[in-house]
Amino acid sequence: MLPHAADLIGTEHRLGAHNYKPLDVVLARGEGVYVWDTEGNRYLDCLSAYSAVNQGHCHPKVLEAMVSQASKLTLTSRAFRNDQLAPFYEELAALTGSHKILPMNSGAEAVESAIKTVRKWGYEVRGVPENQAEIIVCSDNFHGRTITIVSFSTDPDARGGFGPFTPGFRTVPFGDAAALEAAITPNTVAVLLEPIQGEAGVVIPPAGYLRRVRDLCTERNVVMILDEIQTGLGRTGKLLAEEHEGVEADVTLIGKALSGGFYPVSAVLSNSEVLGVLKPGQHGSTFGGNPLACAVARAAMRVLVEEGMIDNAAAQGAYFLDQLGAIRSNVIREARGRGLMLAVELHPEAGGARRYCEALRARGVLAKDTHDHTIRIAPPLVITREQVDWALEQFDAVLTGTAVP
Ligand SMILES: *Cc1c(COP(=O)(O)O)cnc(C)c1O
Predict the structure, then answer these.
(1) Listed GO molecular functions (predicted)?
(2) DSSP-H helix ranges across 16-160
(3) Most buried residue, 64, 156, 337, 389, by most Cβ within 10 Å?
(4) Sheet architecture: strand order including 188-193
(5) Is the dihedral of CA 153, 154, 159, 164 positive or negative?
(6) Do residues 168 and 135 touch, judged by C-beta distance below 8 A?
(7) Confidence of residue 371 (pLDDT cuts 50, 70, 90)
(8) 100 belongs to the catalytic site
(9) What is this structure's pTM?
(10) Is the dihedral of CA 145, 150, 155, 161 positive or negative?
């Protein structure tokens, strides 16, 4: 490592809060599926900033939209209107079929906004007694990092030391529709879940689960909120992961790739009248719905569709998973995934996924370990068959042992 990179890492360590433990690779440039470090080494990005860069790094059309809008108008606040918000609504509604949209910035803000909204809906529309609203969530969930969101996390690292917590949540095991049904009370206003749990290690629920949750929510007049911040916008080979089971959530949360990685843009999408309960002054965000965000998101959505990225995710993802499954290695417990949301879970005896990620990094692949024994693989959706084949060679070398220290 050149002194420059070591200096940057040292400075980060000295001045930055230590709330991350990144691989020691200092990236300086990105294009498509590739990123380059300060020494000019090229890597194939198999994380895509946790699926925020589905469109590939520095996509030229999104960049063009960003630069062009930045030179015209960036922020008005919602005290005034801007000429990008309406077309953003129109294009997002056309893409997703939603009827109402609330624009926010980070994913956590979209989750928080949905929680606020369904509580209000519960009191005003469902007649739940004041302050009694309950929301059912799933174990091993990941929905963000705010106090309310970590209040219903089951991860000790996410929660520990951060109390007191926000009440009003009930946790049921992910993938267990019977447990969810049993947890519904007259005060249940919503169920909040991820269609596939990403941070938990790409955990796919049993077939039929989302359909059953959908039916339960309809029967019991409970709002179904799907957090598609990571699974959405093509990652799993469909625009939204809910499509794999032919269901439609009442409220869908998107973020991450909504801006192609240029800028934090998130949104609450509603298919019911849930968002209708918000009146002026009851919710907002200085940056939410700003013209720069809207222009960037419009371009990011457009290239996703125009350049066939969703179908490519389905095709390359199926091939990638098939080939990962064919690697003969005694450290692999399971290869799983949907579309380009993939994971290789290792046997505990393998000594943890981190060192495999270090070994992959040495071979030019950046992937992320999660929950000790799982390597998460989520390249940009523009990846080609040749690039998948090259990545597979590196995974094969590392997972068959010879390349790991
Ligand atoms: C990343 C993520 C969030 C939080 O998004 P931020 O932009 O980091 O606040 C919420 N839900 C899911 C499923 C995520 O993957």
Answers:
(1) identical protein binding; ornithine aminotransferase activity; pyridoxal phosphate binding
(2) 48-51, 60-70, 85-96, 107-121, 147-151, 156-159
(3) 337
(4) 100-104, 266-270, 251-254, 223-227, 188-193, 134-138, 169-172
(5) positive
(6) yes
(7) confident
(8) no
(9) 0.97
(10) positive
Residue carrying the six token digits 């084949």: 389
Secondary structure in 3-state letters for 309-326:
HHHHHHHHHHHHHHHHHC
Q: Which of 37, 45, 140, 227 is catalytic?
A: 227
Pocket lining: 106 vs ligand 1, CB cutoff 6 Å: yes
| Ligand 1 atom closest to residue 194's alpha carbon, by position in its atom list | 13
Whether the per-residue pLDDT at 402 is higher than 70: the answer is no
Q: 90: Cβ–Cβ under 8 A, 6 or more apart, which residues?
A: none
Active site residue: 88, 142, 152, 287, which one? 142
Distance 266 CA to ligand 1 centre (A): 10
**Residue 63, phi then psi, degrees to nearest 5:** -60, -45
Is the CB–ligand 1 distance for residue 229 below 6 Å?
Answer: yes
Q: Which residue, chain included where needed, has tokens 């300060």? A: 38
The answer, yes or no, to whether residue 403 has pLDDT greater than 60, is: no
The letter for the amino acid at 86 is A
- Chain centre to alpha carbon of residue 77: 26
Report the first-to-last Cα separation within the chain, whole angstroms.
18
Omega into 186 within 30° of 0, i.e. cis? Answer: no
- CB of 144 within 6 A of ligand 1: the answer is yes
Q: Is 80 a catalytic residue?
A: no
Q: Which ligand 1 atom is at minimum distance from the Cα of 149?
A: 10
Alpha-carbon distance of 295 to 171, in angstroms, equals: 38
**Closest ligand 1 atom, residue 266 Cα:** 7
325: tokens are 């499954």
Q: How far is the CA of 82 from the centre of ligand 1 (A)?
A: 27
Alpha-carbon gap, residue 117 to 217, rounded angstroms: 17
Q: How far apart are CA 395 and CA 389, in angstroms?
A: 10
**What DSSP character marks residue 129?**
P
All domains in the chain, ordered by first residue? 5-59+308-399 (3.90.1150.10), 73-306 (3.40.640.10)
Is there an atom of ligand 1 within 6 Å of 50 CB? yes
Residue 354: predicted pLDDT: 95
